[in-house]
Amino acid sequence: MRSVIWIINKYDAGKFPEDIEKEYGLKAINLSSNENPYPPSDEVKEAYLSALSEINRYPHPEYSDFKKAISEYLGVEESKIAVGNGASDILNNICVALLDTFDKAVIPIPGYTLYAILGMLRDASIEFIEFPNYNIKADEIPPFKLLFLCSPNNPTGNAVERKEVKKILERGNYVVVDEAYVEYCNKSVVDLVNEFDNLIVVRSFSKFFGLAGLRIGYAVGNEQIIEGLEKIRLPFCISKVACDVAIAALKSVDYYNKLRDVVVKERDRLIKEINKIPLLHAYNSDANFVLVKVEKKINLARKLEERGIIVRNVTGLMGLKGEHVRITVGSKEENDFLIETLNSLELA
Asked: Which residues of 118-146 are buried (b: 16+ CB within 10 A; e: fewer)?
């Protein structure tokens, strides 16, 4: 087995309701995974049920209908779209396509931990650079072959300023902008793929469209990069069911925009209410989650688990100092329960 396998850490997806039920005997709400808490559109439900009668069939190998739907959604050419089994699959394919041994991959922190794992698996040279609150400054980015940006960033929640992205792109090196959460703020740079051949934008259907259980992602970039990504993706990597459902989701985007407005309103309410609680500081966010700093070590994530609420404990994540938790914006009822529970803890 390759030595790097013994060096890397397995990706930590956090705890799930099944884990809490086993450990505490409690039914828990999951405010850890940044999922959409609301049900899918009627069109999505109908597409799912209809597709079940064809699960004995492969999807079209080129995913032409799916790419056409994405093209119409974003206003980009189909030739600039590559698909994958979730954004993580796309990110892996990008590393396979672009990184050779000892190539420099730069990862600003605090950020999404999967980038480093994928880069290390390519035997790339990984350089982390810390930006407090993920306030990216183009002039402070060191030389690189591949740069990973997350916008809005996980876990801090803020989007990277467009002017900084453009300044970095002007260097001519490859830049990945992970926009898994961008529909919550409409601060996309996907239009810049028409201006910069070195830009690759990665998107997901797991967050805004609420299809986390189906694993659907895609990339947008120049035709040469996209051709490469399409060459190396595994055949039939998205099931026919998932593909049909994703197309239905794109066709019912108005429904999801309304849900987005609800989530954003609840997010802002969460931030306001959490900031009233002693020892807690919630940062502003452009995403569907909120990063919270705990001013003294109290193991807040554990205290919430014991009361049936799962949040992501990001204490110890590179680039974060002190205790932090990341909280997904849930339904109004879930958020009410969270706020009530936090207030009952008497943290001061």
From this structure: bbbbbebbbbebebeebebebeebeebbb
